[in-house]
Predict the 3D structure of the following.
Amino acid sequence: MAQLWGGRFTKETDQLVYNFNASISFDQKFYKEDIEGSIAHVTMLAKQGILTEQERDEIVGCLREIRQEVEEGKLEISDKYEDIHSFVEANLIDRLGDTGKKLHTGRSRNDQVALDMRLYTRGEVLAVDELLKTLLTHLLTIMKENTDTYMPGFTHLQKAQPVTLAHHVGAYFEMFKRDRSRLKDIYRRMNYCPLGAGALAGTTYPLDRDYTAELLGFEGPTLNSMDSVSDRDYLIEFLSALSTIMMHLSRFCEEIIIWNSNEYRFVEIDDAYSTGSSIMPQKKNPDIAELVRGKTGRVYGALMSLLTTMKGIPLAYNKDMQEDKELSFDAIDTVKGCVALFIGMVSTMKFRRDVMEASAKNGFTNATDAADYLVNHGVPFRDAHGIVGRLVLYCIDKNIALDDMSLEEFKAISPVFEEDIYDVISLKTCVEKRITIGAPGQEAMKTVIELEERYLKENA
């Protein structure tokens, strides 16, 4: 097929070179964006008197017809076209003749592809944000239902202090909240229109770039034509945000995998999100959690690939930048799929409250509170720390929890202990007396949950 840019050339491109150069196999993904941009461009050309109203109407009508036929499967986007822009324009010319050839007036493929990628990415930013909002809604439900579900809090994967499941899940709520905030920032920063930048130096046609930007829902036009066609910062930012989302999902999945193990038994994953073993009939594997954890590296790879591609590119457009698409498309689809599956898994997962509470008791998570008890009775903290350390060693030797010790056993190690030590080291007391905002106590959690509910309403 003759290329739309072929006038300068007297010899056909080598087939291998053509195949290597072509992008139709992946950039067909944004045929809608290409047609949307073309409709806005033609509308602006007619407003400026560069095209007649009749030419505008014919081109716009035909573009909409092409879009509908693609969506209905009547028109195939095939590899006989070099890219999606060539596909759209060639089909337009086939149907409208010379009128169709006027579509490209005042426009380059460089600003065209810059627009298409920006429109596509902008839509995907919103799609990922919507998924995160749904995830946060489910996490908030878990928080509301588990403000008195006691469990061990960990540092170094060692049981540290008692918390609640609501408090633990609330930590992930904050992470995904920050993710949404990053997406909002990216959207705001990227929402400027590159169309009209031309190849790199604008055009002599009297284009109204503000009008085109308005038609396409942008804040305004980009302000430097060279930067317009060579900027991929917004995509790097998006891939970075996606990588952070995957890191948060991966951390949560890692905990679910641990909690699902026989040693912990904190959760039971629904059958729909588990698989069995081909040889061991007792197995129930957390495959979805493991796959989300595994796919995190795939998204990181896309970010590193684009950063590496862009690091040595001089102004303005270079063909290297075609490499922004395949891995980015894959990363975006991967993240959307992972968030959707994670929502399904976490919203159907059952939490073993009894096992979590028993684990908190048996892990000496109330040892700090026992030390605070001694300090409040006049014992220097360093001495209190040593006394409680001896208590823990005693319990380990006897295979009991602090709560299981008799008062005589307490007093044998320190006569300061009295009957009220049992109330002080109960999980309920240990948690509920932590009342500062951000802590796991009931009153503190109630305040936080109200704030999170308000956040979701204000950021719907």
About this structure: The chain has a mean pLDDT of 93. The first strand starts at residue 150 and ends at 155. The two ends are 49 Å apart (CA to CA). The longest helix spans residues 109-145.
